[in-house]
Amino acid sequence: MAIPFISVRHPRAHDIVDDPLEVAGVGTGFEGTLSCRLRNAQGQAIAEKSFQAGGTGIWGNFFFRIDVPSVPQRARGTLEVFESSAEDGSDLHKRVIPILFGRALVDPFAGFAIHTVQSGETLSGIASDFYGDPAKFRIIFAANREILDDPDVIVPGQELRIPQ
């Protein structure tokens, strides 16, 4: 099995991220340089940054922060980590991680609680318990789209992230 040139360990797919976004992983790139790009739900690049990850042909751990320049209108977005081609500047070995911008869900964003769904609960009831407003069920639904297809269908035992 081939080892990928870039392995992003944090954030994982569908994580709710804060500002600044912290990224960690293992990788190698031309002259040890990798880049990252944040995209909003519409696919527009909203931030980009380059960083060192070892030397050419040398694997290195990386950790860096990238600022989210403004609160995106929608929570969904992507983080791309890649090497730039020395020949034409194209993206090589790109890893794309779907993420959720926490501040697009609640601003300010201070992490999330985990709630295990109990029999008879609804998203609006959970929103009322956590936020004092049943209409804020949309926040919980948006934060859990990778496991929820319909805001009217939740099942006992599901673990939901409740943005704080």
What can you see in these coordinates?
The chain is built from three helices and ten strands. The protein has 164 residues and is mainly beta. A five-stranded mixed beta sheet has the order 2-8-7-4-5. A three-stranded antiparallel beta sheet has the order 1-3-6, with no helix packed on it. Strands 9-10 form a two-stranded antiparallel sheet. It is elongated. The protein starts with 5 loop residues before the first strand and ends with a strand. The relative contact order is 0.19. The mean pLDDT is 93.
What fold name stands as the CATH topology of the largest domain? Immunoglobulin-like
Radius of gyration: 18 Å
Q: Please give the alpha-carbon distance between the first and last residues.
A: 41 Å
Strand order of the largest sheet: 2-8-7-4-5
Gross CATH architecture of the largest domain: Sandwich
Biggest sheet layout: 5 strands, mixed
Overall mean pLDDT:
93
CATH class of the largest domain: Mainly Beta
Helix content: 10-25%
The unreliable regions are: none
Counting helices, strands and paired strands, the structural category is: mainly beta
Give the percentage of residues in beta strands: 35-45%
C-alpha geometry: elongated
Number of domains: 2
Spell the H/E element sequence: EEEEEEEEHEHHE
- Number of distinct beta strands: 10
Q: Please, how many helices?
A: 3
